[in-house]
Structures are given as structure tokens and as C-alpha cells.
Amino acid sequence: MAGRFTRRLQKELLDLQRSPPTGVKLEDNTTRLDQWRIHLTGADGSLYAGEHFVLRFRFGNNYPMEAPEVVFEGPNIPMHGHIYSNGHICLNVLYNEWSPALSVQSICLSLLSMLSSSPEKSWPPDNDTYVRRAIASPKQTSWAFHDDTV
Amino acid sequence: MPKDIISTQIQAIEDVNNIFQIPPSTARILLQFFGWDKERLVERYYDGDQDRLFEEAHIINPHKLPRQDSNTEHKEMTCEICYVDYPRKDMTGLPCNHRFCRHCWVSYLQSKIMDEGTGEKITCPAHQCPIVADEVTISHLLQGHPEIQARYEFFVAKAFVQGNKLVKWCPAPGCENAVRVNTVEARPVKCKCGHAWCFGCQQPTHEPVHCPTLKAWLKKCADDSETANWISANTKECPRCKTTIEKNGGCNHITCRSLNCKYEFCWSCLGAWEPHGASWYNCSRFDEKDSMQARDQHSRSRVSLERYLHYYNRYHNHEQSQKFEQQLFAKVDKKMEEFQQRGMSWIEVQFLKKAVEVLCLCRQTLKYTYVFGFYLRKNNQAVIFEDNQKDLEMAVETLSQYLEQDMDSATGSASSSSSSSSSSSSSSSSSAATTAQATSNPTVLADIKQRVLDKSQYCESRRKVLLDHVQDGYEQGVWEFDAAGN
Ligand SMILES: [Zn+2]
Ligand SMILES: [Zn+2]
Ligand SMILES: [Zn+2]
Ligand SMILES: [Zn+2]
Ligand SMILES: [Zn+2]
Ligand SMILES: [Zn+2]
């Protein structure tokens, strides 16, 4: 990563530590700059209220020109129509709609709002086939986005 | 060639500017959006909703640009990509007014152009902003980055070619040129790289056949190649005694191996060999009466396959010969050096190279005459065509023989003695080689030259006669084709 963009990532990290948005918390012992874990808490009034989820962010050399790799991790993967049980997320801003003007914070907020707007808790209809075939990184999947509204 | 393409684009853009009075960058995006069809753009611009037109093309209506407030230009603002503060005037962007620092713009363009390989429709880096970056802005931002700029220009040219029916890429492997024409119909074109091809179908130049016929032929060859190979590789029955005969080598002159029969016949047409004469290439007797009678004994399907093979073999022969063209050029290069060592000037020896060029061109034409002939129904003009074909074929074989064999015997073991005679260009008294005495004689060289010149001019004229005759036939509608080639 070019020096300017390392500084940007450091600023993003600092920002998240100092003034994280509601429901977003950086893991305390974050030491590596290229891989973070972020805890999300489901928003009040949503189907996921009070639930804890862990997101893993990986930043490639081309960040922020290229999107980070973002997946849910750990025992509690949110049951949601655009989230697979292996933690892969079907959200266009993480892939072809990524813009370098987006950030870790904006991704976290999009994910929280995606959870909040969900009318029911269920895996995507193709969950079994996808999880069986899925490659390690969701960035290698070519996503056909089901719809952009949820 | 990318330069020519760009100047063509600039002309189109200027034309649009003169009509609409909009910035060139906007004109370019609009033209690209309409596949460089100026008429369609003008029509759409004047009838209907201009705001919608601009929205669909992902640009801001240049007549409705937001006003710049000069008071805020010195205020600092944060670049949303690198998070660094800059004075507003040092930030830059598209008419959508999303601004980023120049470093980030370059990084963004580099990532799009070099990593993702996109050149057209690079949008503003802001999230969900659909506004397309115009070429002027991009070129400006890429100043000082020639590598990215060159790649970008290549993509722009490529997009232009893809969106334009009058421009096509040269199909030669590794060639990055494009050829532009004024009207869309098929015709032979020549790229600056030397490759001659058909603008209609991008196959190598294929006079006298038309594109659809060639396409049908190539498909047939691909479909039939297995059967054809099987038949070629396998045996035939002697037309007289039915003994099984194997074909040995390339010659069509077959002698039945049965000791009682020893019938001599032509492999291709199954007719008696006698009227074929001494030269294999002389077989154009396929449709002659005796050949037909001989073949009548074979099943109908076998006959049509044989007929196909007859044409295919001719076609294939020339195709094979074309593969040796490079070798022939190399060989003739050496000869030209020799001739110069023997007293001819550089200008005087150019006839050899020209002769090879003529040979290659005639071979190319001949190859496709067999495709034409395969589908052609017999009529009076078809007979004339076949005569022309035969004449050209014989002339080409003679020229080929001059260039590939006779030249060697005329100059003797020239290649081995050339090093000893290279010190002197005059007739050498020190050289003991008898061949050198003959070839250093200027009248022998002049004689060879005259023969090659005469024959290659003859080939050229026969080729022209054949092509003109076919062209006249097309124009007067005398050619009848059989789609099945029967
Ligand atoms: Zn910046
Ligand atoms: Zn924008
Ligand atoms: Zn070319
Ligand atoms: Zn063609
Ligand atoms: Zn026999
Ligand atoms: Zn024959």
C-alpha cells in the first residue's frame, strides 16, 4: 500500500477506536494494520437486537482502490437473506459497487442497516449449494446481486 | 494507427461541437454513447428530452452546470480517499462536483486502467456517482504518467473501433492496428503491418469468392475433415479391375498394382491418366465424360465426396505452399545477394523479390478459385473460368519452378562458392570453379532475369484476367451456385 493510503488506514483505525458509531466496536487487541476484527451489535427494534457478530476485514495492497475482504466469523453468523452460513456477504458495495470514497465505517453501517431492514431470519435460498462450492474468499465469487434494496 | 483513429474521432467531435456548442469532452461521451453515429445523436438531441439524454449517457448537462462559489475556493477540504486536507482549489473532479486530490485521482485511474483494464466509462470515484469521466479530464490528470496514458489511449481507440462499423482491427496476431473504410461493404484491405485481409469477414483476402461462400466452405472443411481424412488416408478401387489401391505420396498419377491390370489412372478424377499429360497439376478433367463414366460405378455419395476432395486437395495444396512463403523469401534474399556479388546492382535484383510477391498473391487467389469452383454450376462462363484457372495454375507452377529450382541449377553450387568470389565483382580469373565461370557471365544473369520477369508479369496478367472475368460474371449475374456443391 502506498504511504498515503497506509496513513489513511491508520486514521480510520484511530477514528474507530476514539469515536465508533453505535453498534460498531473494534476488537481491543488489534495489532495488525492489514487485518481487523470488528464487533457488531444488532440495532434495537430489529430482529437482531442485542445479538453480537464478528466481522473480519482484510486489506489488500490496493486498498482503498480495491474493496477490503469482509466476512462474518465465529459461532454466530447472522441469519439473513444476503448472508451465507459460512459468513460470506452478498452486498454490492463490497464488490463491484465499491468506491474508494467508502470506508470501514461506511461498510459497517451498511451492514447494520442491512440487518435492521430484514423482515425475517433465514439463510439465502441457495445457501447449501453456495457454501458447498464456495472458495475461501468471497471476492473470488462473481456475485449476482439479488436486489439492492435490502 | 491509433493516431489516425484519434484524428478521426476529433473530426467527429468537432462536427458535433459545431452543431450543439457543447464542450468536446461532453461531445465525445455522447458520441461514444451513440456508437459514433453522429446522425442518430443529432436526431435524438433535437427531438425530445435533453435532460434525459444526458442522464442516460451519465453526464451533467453542460448548459446546467452548478455555479462555482469563488469565496470558498481557498477553504481547506478533506480528500475522501486519502483523508488529507487540501485547499479546495487544489482538488479536482468532474461536473458532478465531487472533488478529490490529484494523487488520489491518479491512483484511482491507475487502478481502473492498469489493474481492471477499463478505459471507457470510468465513473467518478464517489460512491454511487454515475458521472463518467471524460477523456480531456483523464488525459489532463495523467500528465506525467506516460505508461498509464498510453494504455488509456489504447482503450479509447479500442472502444472507438468496437463502437464503429467503419473501423475494424487487423486480425494479424500481435498487430494492434485498425483499418478504417468509408462504406461498410466487404472488400480486400491491407494493414500497415502488411497483412491483407477482407473487411467483411476478417479472413485473409479471398478473391474471387464472396464472404458467405467462403464461410460455407470453411464450415464444410471443418465438418468434413474427419471423413475426408479417412478417405484420403484410405484406399480406392482401381476403376478397371477393382483391386484396392493405396495412394503413395502426393502424385495423382496412379498405376494399378495388379500385375494383370496395370491400369494408369488419376487418383482425383478416376479417369484414365493418358489425357492428363505429364503434369499432375494439369488435372482439371474432373468433369470430363470419361472421368464421369469411370466414377459412375462408384456410389453417388462417394462421387460427391471425391468431388469435394478434388477441390479440397487443390485448395489445401496452395494453403500448404503458402506456409513456405517465408522460406522462399529468405532463399530469394540470399539469391539477391549473390546476384549483386556477381555484378548486378541492388535495384536490378529487386525483380526477384517482386516475383515472389507475385507468386504468393497468385497462390492466394488460386486457392480461393477452388472454393469458387466447388460451388459453381457448370455453364459456358464456368468453362471459361476453369480455363482461366488452369492457365493461371500452370503459369504459377512454372514461376514457382523458376524460383525454387531452376535458379539453383542456373547459378550452380552458387551458395558454396559465393564466399570465395565475394572479394571481386568482376569476372574472376582466380576462381577455378567451372560453375562460377558460367554464372559470372552477365548474359546468363540477364537471361534468368528476363525469364523470371516475363513469367511473373504473365502470372499477374492471368490473375487479373481471371478476377476481372469473375467480377464481370458477378455483375451480370451469370454465376449460379449450388449450396451443396454438387
Ligand atoms: Zn486524496
Ligand atoms: Zn461524482
Ligand atoms: Zn496489421
Ligand atoms: Zn470476406
Ligand atoms: Zn486394376
Ligand atoms: Zn484427373
From TrEMBL, chain A:
Which top-level group of life is the source organism from? Eukaryota
Q: What is this protein called?
A: Ubiquitin-conjugating enzyme E2 W
Q: Which SUPFAM superfamilies match?
A: UBC-like
Q: Sorted alphabetically, which InterPro entries does this protein's record hold?
A: Ub_conjugating_enzyme, UBC, UBQ-conjugating_enzyme/RWD
Gene3D superfamilies cross-referenced by the UniProt entry: Ubiquitin Conjugating Enzyme
Species assigned in the record: Capsaspora owczarzaki (strain ATCC 30864)
What PANTHER family does this protein map onto? UBIQUITIN-CONJUGATING ENZYME E2
Q: Where is the UBC core domain?
A: 4-150
TrEMBL record, chain B:
Known InterPro entries for this protein? Ariadne, ARIH1-like_UBL, E3_UB_ligase_RBR, IBR_dom, TRIAD_supradom, Znf_C3HC4_RING-type, Znf_RING, Znf_RING/FYVE/PHD
EC number(s) on file: 2.3.2.31
Q: Which Pfam families match?
A: Ariadne (PF19422), IBR (PF01485), IBR_1 (PF22191), UBA_ARI1 (PF21235), zf-C3HC4 (PF00097)
Q: Name one GO biological process term.
A: protein ubiquitination
Q: Which domain of life is it from?
A: Eukaryota
| The entry's keywords | Metal-binding, Repeat, Transferase, Ubl conjugation pathway, Zinc, Zinc-finger
Residue limits of the RING-type domain?
A: 75-287, 79-128
Listed under catalytic activity are: [E2 ubiquitin-conjugating enzyme]-S-ubiquitinyl-L-cysteine + [acceptor protein]-L-lysine = [E2 ubiquitin-conjugating enzyme]-L-cysteine + [acceptor protein]-N(6)-ubiquitinyl-L-lysine
Q: Where is this region: Disordered?
A: 409-441
One Gene Ontology MF term: ubiquitin protein ligase activity
Task: Give the protein name, as stated in the record.
Answer: RBR-type E3 ubiquitin transferase
Q: Which organism is it from?
A: Capsaspora owczarzaki (strain ATCC 30864)
